Amino acid sequence: MQNTHELFDRAALTVVSLGNAIDVVVSTPSTRNSTLKADILQPDRGQHGLFVCVVQIATQSHIFVLDMTQIRVCPDQLRRILVDPLIAKCGVGLDSDAKMIWYDFAIEAYRLIDLGWMIKIAFPIYYRNKAGCISLQHCVADVLHCFMNKEEQTTTWDVGLAGNSSSTQSLVNYAALDAQAGHELYAILIRAIEVTSDQRQTFIPEDWYAYNFVGGQMTRMERNLSGMHEKWSFKVCRWYRGAVITNFWP
C-alpha cells in the first residue's frame, strides 16, 4: 500500500491568494470538472469567528489550499463556484461542510457529490453489507490503495495557515492530500459507475449520490414538477428502493 506522500507527489501543491485560485478554476475550460472541498474541524466558531477555516480546490494539475481565516468573508469568486452546478464539489460528508458554509456565509451549494455514497453504487457487491457512508480514509484505501494517516492533521485549522512553521506545512500538506485524494477518487468512481450501469443494465443518475444544499437543507439535484426543491435523503434515494435493488444485486 502506498504512502499518502506518493499520492501527493502526482500533483503540484500551490498555496496562492483566493482570487488567483478561484479565477483559474472559473475561467479555464479544462478545469470545469474541478473538485472543491471545505474542511471544518472545530465544533464551534473559533477565534476567527468562522466554522469554515480551509477550502481546498483540486484540478488535474494543481491543488489550491485557501486559508479562510485570513479572509473572514466569502468573495464573489468562491460564491460562483459553490453555486455553479457544472463544478463538482466532491468529498465525504459534504452535507456537514455545506451546512457550515451556509451558517458562515449564507451561500447555497450545488452539485455536492458524496464519494462515500458514490463508492457504494460503483462497487455494489463489495459494499452491499456495509452500512452508512464510507469514510474517505476507507475509500482511499480500497480504491487508491493508499493509507491516509489522520495523525498528519496535527492541530486545528483555526490557527490559520500563515507562516512557515513545520506544523503549518503539515496542515497544508494534509489539506492538499485530502483534496487530491477526492479528485482521483471521483475520476475512478465515475468510470466504475459506467461499468456497473452497463453490467446491471440500470441507468444510474447522478442524484443517487449527489445533492444540492438549498435553504439550509440537502435537496435533490433536480426540482420537482412544481419547480420546488425536494429534500434529499439516503433513506428515500431511489437506489435503495426495492425494484432497483432487485435489479442491482445478483
UniProtKB/TrEMBL annotation:
Pfam family, any one: DNA_pol_A_exo1
The 3'-5' exonuclease domain, residue ranges: 48-191
Positions of transmembrane segments: none
UniProt keyword annotation of Nuclease present: yes
Listed GO biological process terms: nucleobase-containing compound metabolic process
Keyword Nuclease applies: yes
Domain of life from the UniProt record: Eukaryota
UniProt keyword annotations, A-Z: Hydrolase, Nuclease
Protein name according to UniProt: Ribonuclease H-like domain-containing protein
Lineage: Eukaryota, Fungi, Dikarya, Basidiomycota, Agaricomycotina
